[in-house]
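Q: What structure does this chain adopt?
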Amino acid sequence: MAPGMKRPYRAVFTALLIGWGGWQLGHGVWIYAKAQLAQYLLGRAWERTLRGEVEAKPWPWADTWPIARLQMPKYGVDLILLAGASGRTLAFGPGHVSSSAMPGNLGTTIFSGHRDTHFHFLARVIPGDELFLEAAEKQYYRYRVIGADIVDARKATIANSPEAALALVTCYPFDTMVPGGPLRYIVTAARW
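A:
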């Protein structure tokens, strides 16, 4: 092959490589942008919820709605928490595991969220940290973190407390490139 013939292949390969890299970068940026935009729209739906609207959907086709608000000032966290914990719900914000206690009730309330967006802050949480939960009935609850555990989701369950408790669950490890996996990071907090 003549030396000049290799040049077009290199240019095409380089263009494809740059295009693929741009697509990957765009996809990553889109995930974070979608998470932030969703929290804005969810915030508006939360305001409607506080005014008494039942199941205030953040957009017309939503299959979820805000049920609580989680704040941890120490970490700059202010999240709207959603009804249900399906994959579609978790794409927009942390979701309530429906088999657990409702926010503010006795028992363990469980919220699940993605480790690379909304629940990434859990990696820094330590025992003694305070967090606040606002329920849809305009009730405020104060919790203190009592521990964090790494468990195998295939074997472990979260015990239901007779007291008011909170469990925040996300995948583990935090900075892996592989999605999913069997490990979960669970931060537990007790109401006080």
